[in-house]
Write a structure and sequence with these properties.
The chain is mainly alpha-helical and 242 residues long. The chain contains five helices and no strands.
Length: 242
């Protein structure tokens, strides 16, 4: 999943959550306003009921008056309970809608993170494969170079025999050539100096992707690539990562 697609889908879910909140605010606004009014009405009716009850107990109010005020109190109280119940139902419904949107948002995030991790894994193995290929090319280049050097030596010996120079001149020339070959490090390719410089790429996410001095030395000296690296490359190929 591309980041732009993830961002777009995430924004859609956020907007959906905002709409849920707006719907909740709209649905509860009228009920809350009516409930506040009913609370004031109940306070007034309840006050009248208490006064009527006291008068009734003193014999100053009739049963009919008492019953009428009591019905008013009960009716207002029932209306308040109904409004409170509606608010509870709305709260429950909106909570489920919010949870649903949040679940979709979390699923989207989980999917995106998993895909990012998988892509990073592919990049890691691609870097390891590039290192493996470089080491293999180094080994092949060394083999070809030694082959060319061997042929060059044969050509040199043939030419030396054909040119009938004095042994002193030949000896002098050969010694001079040996010095040049030694100064260039071509006389013993198998025994390259241990302190040669290696250009190593910066580690991306762990040491497995970086080309080390030891790996390059093994490729040049021994013509070998570590078994561990070869196994990881083969595993990555089987998994379709490279």
């Amino acid at each position: 999943m591309e980041q732009s697609k993830y961002t777009s889908m995430k924004q859609n879910f956020i907007e959906e959550a905002m709409k849920v909140k707006e719907s909740y605010d709209t649905a509860t606004k009228g009920i809350l306003e009516e409930l506040e009014v009913r609370k004031m009405v109940f306070a007034d009716v309840n006050d009248r009921f208490l006064k009527t009850e006291e008068a009734f107990n003193r014999g100053e109010a009739t049963q009919e008056e008492y019953d009428r005020v009591k019905r008013d109190q009960t009716r207002v109280e029932e209306t308040m309970n109904e409004l409170s119940q509606k608010l509870d139902e709305i709260d429950t419904f909106m909570a489920k809608r919010r949870e649903f949107v949040l679940a979709k948002l979390n699923d989207l995030k989980k999917q995106y993170v998993n895909e990012i991790n998988q892509e990073k894994k592919k990049i890691k193995y691609q870097l390891m494969k590039a290192k493996y290929d470089y080491l293999q090319d180094t080994i092949n280049a060394k083999k070809n170079f030694l082959k060319q050097l061997k042929q060059a030596k044969k050509d040199f010996n043939k030419t030396s025999k054909e040119i009938h120079k004095s042994s002193q001149e030949m000896s002098s020339e050969e010694n001079n050539l040996k010095e040049i070959i030694q100064s260039l490090g071509l006389d013993s390719i198998i025994e390259l100096p241990d302190d040669f410089q290696v250009v190593v790429s910066e580690v991306i996410d762990d040491e497995e992707t970086a080309l080390t001095k030891e790996e390059l030395r093994d490729a040049l000296h021994l013509g070998q690539i570590s078994t561990k690296l070869e196994k990881k490359i083969n595993k990555a190929i089987r998994l379709g990562l490279i």
